[in-house]
Write a structure and sequence with these properties.
alpha+beta, Gyrase A, domain 2, four-stranded antiparallel β-sheet, 5 helices, 14 strands
């Protein structure tokens, strides 16, 4: 069902605007946020210093000393009215990543609990997640950390009521029809179901954030021995990509 409130254009502080495409996460709202961000980047408006996205919003920050709110608002409003952003094409240059992943076992001990909450056997849970091509919906919480989705409805499971004290770099965790891939060792309320040798944040690299919003990911099951070998010998932990568009 459409909601006439969206897209919603609001000022944010003295030098920013926020365009929101929904009251909650959905594929069309995320698509719209990504597409609008790409269009703003292509437009190259004078005075714009930064633009980025969250799950369902696009943010723009401008130099308030050189351009005023009214001019930026007018440009944004005209851009918003130029097309149906909910049906827009996703940005060009996106990539499909295939990331080798160990599921379950002592490395990722919460697979069985997460599968039970989803009403699946562990084997069926692994098969369903591995078959679902998920989108990098946004980067947040920690440097280079992707939020990926959406998974099938069965995976609309809650976060834990208590925190897991520590999951390692490359941990794959699940909640609320999303996956997150940890770039740093972290406390989390999401259930740790898979482990990769992939590092989403590589501060020593020219591009420290490896994944970009709009990229697609497949988590491909591998055994423990393959994972261990990829930790030390395979670039990007064995992950590969191809350009989608």
């Amino acid at each position: 069902m459409s909601d006439d409130r969206f897209p919603l254009l609001r000022s944010l502080g003295v030098d920013g605007y926020l365009v929101t495409f929904g009251a909650e996460l959905s594929e069309p709202a995320n698509r719209a946020a990504l597409a609008l961000h790409s269009a703003i980047e292509r437009a190259g408006w004078d005075g714009v210093e930064e633009s980025t996205t969250s799950l369902i919003s696009t943010y723009l920050r401008f130099d308030a000393l050189s351009v005023d709110h009214a001019m930026i608002r007018g440009q944004l409003q005209a851009l918003l009215e130029s097309q149906d952003w909910f049906a827009a094409d996703l940005p060009e240059g996106r990539r499909l990543w295939r990331i080798p992943t160990v599921f379950g076992g002592d490395l990722c001990p919460q697979l069985d609990v997460a599968a039970e909450l989803a009403g699946l056997s562990p084997e069926a849970a692994i098969a369903q997640i591995a078959a679902t091509q998920v989108r990098v919906q946004t980067i947040g919480f920690a440097p280079g950390m992707p939020y990926l989705g959406e998974l099938p409805d069965a995976w609309n499971i809650p976060r834990q009521t208590e925190l897991t004290k520590s999951v390692p770099v490359g941990a794959l965790a699940v909640a609320i029809r999303q996956l997150v891939l940890f770039p740093v060792t972290s406390t989390t309320g999401w259930r740790h179901i898979g482990q990769t040798a992939f590092r989403p944040f590589q501060p020593e690299a020219e591009r420290p954030f490896v994944l970009n919003p709009g990229d697609e990911v497949l988590f491909e099951p591998v055994d423990r021995a393959t994972y261990e070998a990829m930790r030390t010998s395979a670039p990007n932990g064995g992950a590969t990509f191809e350009v989608l568009a």
